[in-house]
Amino acid sequence: MDFLLTNVLAITWQQLVMYAVGIALIYLAIKKEFEPALLLPMGFGAILVNLPFSGVLNQELAGIGETNGIIEWLFNVGIEASEALPILLFIGIGAMIDFGPLLSQPIMFLFGAAAQFGIFAAVVFAALLGFDLTDAASIGIIGAADGPTSILVSQMLKSKYVGAIAVAAYSYMSLVPIIQPPIMKLFTTEKERKIKMAQLRPVSKLERILFPIIVTIVVCMILPTTAPLIGMLMLGNLFRESGVVRQLQETASNALMYIVVILLGTSVGATTSAEAFLKVDTLKIVLLGLVAFAFGTFAGVMFGKLMCLVTKGKVNPLIGSAGVSAVPMAARVSQKVGAEADPTNFLLMHAMGPNVAGVIGTAVAAGTFMAIFGVK
């Protein structure tokens, strides 16, 4: 009983706040079903690492000495020392992605590029708020709503805010259905939202097989620092499209993917201790992440409007918002908003083009930052 009382008295108000943060993430995962595979372990990890004397983080315990915490060990081995977990996750993502809609309309690459504007806008705002450039670059990646890339970039650039950036990135990734629709509706007319696009052309198997090989060679020759991201993403996609390694494709997109998600989500909790997380800078990062994501969505929609004008009404601007990296949720939001204007409008496959282009665009943006700041 004395030990229980000691534990209760050791809880600080900062830890209580982190319990609330963890519970909020779990609520979003269970009640709203917003990226539950990610938010559930992250939310539980945030609670776990803030329990006094829990031993999940490296710490000194009276009468015991120094303990090696399992969650902190996972973070050190899987993220800090090797960046292995985010990179392995990209194999699973690649194995799940269908690049067919993008190959059917290669111009959709431009939508993926336009939506990256939010990243660079956030970098500027972060620098103006006093963050150094490496931290600003790490914060900017939140604008792509790409959790693994955000973690990888912030870790490789040695950012002091890995935990805050990871939580913000995954939170906004899960909140895509809430954040994007108001922006999409504000900057498009009902007539534009009702535009029906022509059916996509069929894509041959040869195109699908050559695509990951060519993209890897071209992008990595221009930006070698993108090799870990682009290479693993395209390797997973080659598993999918080759058709001869079905076991590898299924393992990458299921067993491997979810094992890594569990380890990644939980180990990110190691960075959400109250002492490290509850700072004024953390609030700034969360707000900057929202600004970045909003700007990315806005830029994608505005580029969609431009393409609508150029093609004389053949492109629905709503698909531009899918240029962020939240696959396939952002594409589903484009479909949902379009269907609200016209229930017979089917935009999902068209929106998947910008959506998967955004994954590549975010990897390129990440590689650019790592090249600029000297990461080899």
Descriptive labels:
376 residues, mainly alpha, two-stranded antiparallel ribbon, 2 strands
Structure description:
- The protein is mainly alpha-helical and 376 residues long.
- The chain has one domain (10-55, 67-372).
- The protein contains 20 helices and two strands.
- The chain has a two-stranded antiparallel ribbon with strand order 1-2.
- α3 runs antiparallel to α11 (162-174).
- The model has no long low-confidence stretch (mean pLDDT 86).
- Strand percentage: under 5%
Cα(first) to Cα(last) distance is 54 Å
Principal-axes geometry comes out as globular
Report the major sheet.
Answer: 2 strands, antiparallel
Q: What is the helical fraction, as a range of percent?
A: over 70%
Q: Order of SSEs, N→C?
A: HHHEEHHHHHHHHHHHHHHHHH
Mean pLDDT across all amino acids: 86
C-alpha-based Rg, rounded:
21 Å
* Tally of individual helices: 20
What number of structural domains do the residues give? 1
Q: Tell me the total number of β-strands.
A: 2
Uncertain stretches: none
Largest sheet, spatial ordering of strands: 1-2
Task: Output the structural class.
Answer: mainly alpha
